[in-house]
Design brief:
Blueprint lengths: L7 E3 L8 H8 L5 E3 L12 E3 L4 H14 L5 E4 L6 H16 L7 E3 L10 H15 L4 E4 L2 H13 L6 H4 L8 H12 L7 E4 L11
Parallel strand pairs: 1-2, 2-3, 4-5, 4-6, 6-7
Helix pairs in contact: 2-3, 4-5, 5-7
Length: about 210
């Protein structure tokens, strides 16, 4: 029961711990740690938040792709707007500067999704729009769900993707994703963009 609860750890969907939700959590009267970046107008009592350095996360991804020769990169923003994704976008732009690539070479998908809406459908839809509109050679996808959906979209269109690039997108986890990775590995067709999921673990995140 509540009388035996000494504290809570919460891993919320992006942008879901609003001021109203934070106030309700504060009323529990025990320490609550939210594993996400939060921007509360008035920090509630008992609430804390920790998160990895998503700015560096975004910067590292772009630098990694630039080192592999990519000069036109697409960002699939398939999750709700949140402080994490704003910071990650800034980090990606810094990665372009660090790599000597013009900012215009980073394309951002149009539209987003709201809390609790289908981020997989958003990932697939935005990826299709990105590929149709821009000649990008690499994609950074906002979440594992979006990366999985984008990959399924590639398969449905009869286009293969490098399976070794998808392992970094978290597609090696879970029976459904193992099956999907096997389909990608054996699917004929030309390779499309490398897929990198956001966020990845960054140095020091385990010490937060």
């Amino acid at each position: 029961g509540r009388e035996r609860t000494k504290g809570l750890l919460i891993l919320p969907p992006p942008a879901s711990v609003t001021d109203d939700v934070a106030a309700q959590l504060s009323e529990l009267g025990v320490p609550v740690v939210v594993l996400a970046t939060c921007e509360w107008s008035d920090p509630p009592e008992h609430l804390f938040h920790v998160a990895p350095d998503v700015f560096e996360d975004g910067r590292m991804k772009v630098c990694h792709l630039a080192e592999r020769g990519h000069r036109s990169i697409g960002y699939i923003h398939n999750e709700p707007d949140s402080p994490e994704y704003t910071s990650a976008w800034r980090g990606m732009r810094q990665g372009l500067r660090d790599s000597g690539i013009q900012l215009k070479e980073l394309k951002r998908s149009v539209g987003s999704t709201s809390v609790w809406h289908d981020s997989m459908e958003a990932g697939r839809r935005q990826t299709e729009q990105m590929i149709a509109k821009h000649r990008v050679t690499a994609l950074i996808v906002g979440s594992e769900a979006g990366a999985a959906a984008a990959t399924e979209g590639f398969l449905a269109d009869g286009v293969g993707v490098h399976v070794d690039e998808l392992v970094g997108a978290g597609l090696e986890n879970g029976p459904r994703n193992v099956e999907l990775a096997a389909r990608i590995a054996t699917h004929p067709g030309r390779p499309l963009p490398d897929v990198v999921v956001l966020p990845i673990k960054v140095p020091g995140a385990d010490r937060v």
